[in-house]
Amino acid sequence: MSGLRIRDLRVSFDGFKAVDGVDLDVAPGDIRFLIGPNGAGKTTLVDAVTGLVKASGSVHFGDAELLGRPVHQIARMGVGRTFQTATVFEELTVLQNLDIAAGAGRSPWSLLRRRTSVPTVVSEALETINLTAQRDQLAGTLAHGQKQWLEIGMLLVQDVRLLLLDEPVAGMSHDERDATGALLGVVSRDRTVVVIEHDMDFMRSFARTVTVLHAGKVLSEGSVAQVQADPKVQEVYLGQGTRDA
Amino acid sequence: MTSTVERPVSAPPVAPRRRFVLRGPGVGLAVGAVVLFAVAPVALSDFRLSLLAKYLCIAMVAVGIGLAWGRGGLLTLGQGVFFGLGGYAMAMHMKLADAGPGQMPDFMLLYGQLDALPWWWAPFRSPYFALPATVLLPMLVAFLLGSLVFRRRVRGAYFAILSQALAAALAIFLIGQQGTTGGTNGLTDFQGFFGYDLDDPVNQRMVYFIVAASLLALLLIARQLIRSRYGELLVAVRDSEERVRFLGYNPANVKLVAYVVAAGMAGLAGALFVPAVGIINPALIGIVPSIEFVIGVAVGGRATLLGPVIGAVAVAWARTTLSEEFPAAWTYLQGLLFVLVVAFLPGGLASARVLLRRRSP
User: Which positions fall inside the ABC transporter domain (chain A) (predicted)?
Assistant: First the structure.
């Protein structure tokens, strides 16, 4: 298992510093929650790590430098992500979605033929994300929570070693949140997980470590209890923090 | 700052019960084969059969557009370029074959500006060069162009406009080079097709069968591509290119394959159009014909296998019939047809079946 090491990460858009010198270490097998007010730079940080936006500094996953590589190469190095709004291929079935996610290393020859059986990783992932019964349903017809799970399932069959999840439980019911949290526990057994989340209850239940971002910088870092006790965090979350607590 | 995953501009609207339509092609292909090989040759006069051959050539272009546009979301508004490259490659060979060994084509002597055959004509004397070139040359051009364009993430309307500009450029270039390309007149007055006299109705029927067989072959290729894992991946790229990128694929390569295959199909169509119709000229490959290729596909149903073929043949047939009756009105009718289909039947005629089935209890 590999960990994530970010040093002096900077992203700016037309002079606006969205991420302003972030250092971040996520240990292998950790479930790290990134929290912070809107505009703190959480999603931009994930965008930078996955190659979607240009950034300076360095991002190492294991021994490999990620910055400067195109998106699809970073994905092939074992870094996967989800988006705030679930983006599955709505006009393909659940099975087809997973099969495509599993196939980035396929030879041209096998691409040009039909799928004759369900790959083992795909059927395992279907079990893990609890969508076996929906296998042949179009992904566009799934419930909101199921789409999010399908996205996580796609990361599993893609065999990523680092999962970056952007608000995975937004809009989910209480039961769905608990199921998602349990899923994170399973996933993190042999993978490193980073979660961007606004939901404080969810964070308290399932985070192992927490990093608070504010205005593009790391404000605080540590266990859930440490971060909650930090006066700087309370100040930034004034109102929001007290209400949630 | 959010990470938006944008849909390409040309992404078609959702057709929720697409899988219904996909079941058909096996049966549809078989019926189509019977009609083309058994019914049409018996039922149609020589004249009508050669008209059908012309329509089927246009349908071959449509198969490729159905793949690139319907499945891949690439609005290929410039297929005239590849149709033209294939057509001119074939026409140059036929001109040289008519002229005989060591001779120059008649029109070059007529215009009298040239002392010798231009160097780039010379290889087309050999059928072993010219025949593969009708398909490979368009594919090569598509590969070079696609590599540039897709890697730079040009898509949607920009890609369509670029394709169209290219079709215009090729047509203008050909018109300007009258001495070596026949200019506006193009290449015509062919006597033979690989030794067979093209004036003989029997040989015209042979050309028809070659065209029909080629169309079926292209449909089988397209069918295999659509049903393969690549076909699923192509739809995924069409609907969410960024997402595919995050799965570790380079979407540029996925699109490139569909674009190059579609170009090869258009090239073969152009090559067979020449013996079937007897002419290739800039008016047949510029902007207007390029748009007409796409209209046929839209009318038939771009995302299905047989829709583009049926649409292309129907529109081409309507064009011939209606422009005989009302020469001035066809352009307007064609425009009206396109508007109606886009407004009321975005999935084309192929989706009408699904709509009807949904309404009936």
Answer: 4-240
